[in-house]
Amino acid sequence: MRPDGKSVGTGESRTARAQMSPALYAQEYQRARPALSLLAFASVGDRHLAEDLVQEAALTGFRQLDRFEPGTSLLAWLSQIVRNLASNLVRTKARRKTTPAGPELFESQPTSVAEPNASPVLQNGDLSIEQRDFDDHLTRELLGLDTVQRACLLLRVVGELPYDQISVIVGVPEGTAMSHVHRGKRVLRERLTMTPNTHKPKEGVTT
Amino acid sequence: MTGPTDPTPEALSADQLALERYLDGDMPAQEREGFESVLASRPELGRQVELQQKIDLRLRALFTPDIVAPDLQLPLSVPRRSHRRLITLAAAALVLLAVVVFQWWSSGSQGNGALTPAAVYARELKSGFVPKEVCTDDPAFKAWVSRRYGQGLSMPEPPAGLTLVGWDYADVISPYSGVLLAKFEGREVLVIIDRAGLEHEAFATGKHHGLYVHRDVIGSLVAYEVSPLPEAKILPALHGTPCEHKHAK
User: DSSP class of residue A73?
Assistant: First the structure.
């Protein structure tokens, strides 16, 4: 099955089909890149990995351009490639062996560090700490959201995309994308105004 | 990507549902006005709106992709690869070249910028509102605009509370759109200006995700003011002046 939901034809039909030209591919990729970057970040939770992932997706898409059916959405096709690559990356990372740290490592750490979960927003809505701390707190809570929710939220707020496009990029129905955005915003507001240590945001990425 | 395909339905109050739609910009103008009067009488809802606007602004500042970054980066040295692989890489290099040529062509000949006014605001906010050039007085300000855009702009009576920071450039209307950075009563405000003839299509004005965009045409120039403030503060104070710059060979 093709990423855009249509069946992949035989090799013969693929070669017989007119291919998208490299120049047009470059042009379409350029348009899609900001959304793909947000999707990649939402998927892997790391900016540098996300940029690498988008570039890898661009090359993968280019190498497999004969599988793309002109007239269908290149954005949807590239988004599927990004999601597949991200999924492989996260699985690979999960398989890596890690060595648990001994308690002595934690005991040697200073105990006077600032409380990381302290709320950066006062009850009156003003920022209680510096902007950078607010950004750190916001990023941590964003990474605590579900991957799909995070992708929908970033595509809506940062990408300013309509829900039909978010639906295509993330691969969920439009109504679901909207629910994810609304709930994601609400969760961020709640967590950013919570009192310290009343919640434990999930660390890392869920896929 | 996996994850829950549909969030579990929640029992939200009518106010909460309206708040979500309001924050999402998904509310007709009349309903919006009605809800804003509700917000004025419900401070707890107003605080949520303010917080969400802060969150949205910071998310844009943190995550707006850098449009001008290189798009495809190929490895500089390639270990032994098959002939087919090399052909693929050569083709990819052609794609990169096509991207660069397309960017040059689209920005130069069509005057179609890559950034929206809101994206420029997010970018400037992220970089700390640091100008590339500073005009120290109104004549310098007038001359700066005149030299670059063929028509001068003057601000003889800056509104009280306004501090001009300086100029930056951004690829909005053309790759060299001027971005006037300013602060009004401590809030960051910017004005994007360029030749009106280069504007391929006017950007949407009004409120978008916590930012207000105002547009004005001043003589041969088009100007967009972008800020969290509902009223334009700089555009009404700007006046067009004749070009002072004579093209010299």
Answer: -
Q: What is the dihedral of CA B94, B100, B102, B104, to 10 degrees?
A: -150
Compute the residue count for chain A.
207
Q: Which strands form B187-195's sheet, in the order they lie side by side?
A: B162-170, B177-184, B187-195, B221-227, B211-218, B206-208
Alpha carbon separation from B112 to B109, B147, B192 (Å, rounded): 8, 21, 14
Residue intervals in chain A for CATH 1.10.10.10: 120-193
Looking at the domain A120-193, which fold is it? Arc Repressor Mutant, subunit A (1.10.10)
Q: How does pLDDT run across B30-89, given as a tens digit for each residue?
A: 888 888 888 888 888 888 898 998 898 888 888 876 543 444 443 333 334 455 666 666
| Most B-contacting residue of A185, A190, A202, A205 (CB-CB within 10 A), to test interface | A185
ipTM of the complex: 0.72
Minimum distance, in Å, between the CA of residue B154 and any CA atom of chain A: 34
B63, B95, B118 ranked by CB distance to A25: nearest: B95
A31 interface with B at CB cutoff 8 Å: no
In angstroms, the CA B94 to CA A56 distance is 16
- Cβ(B137)–Cβ(B102) under 8 Å? no
Domain borders along chain B are 14-63, 69-112, 117-241
Q: Does domain A21-93 have CATH number 1.10.1740.10?
A: yes
Question: Between vectors from CA B56 to CA B50 and to CA B58, what angle results, nearest 5°?
Answer: 105
In which residue ranges of chain A is CATH 1.10.1740.10 found? 21-93
Instruction: Report residue B104 as tokens.
Output: 């040059």
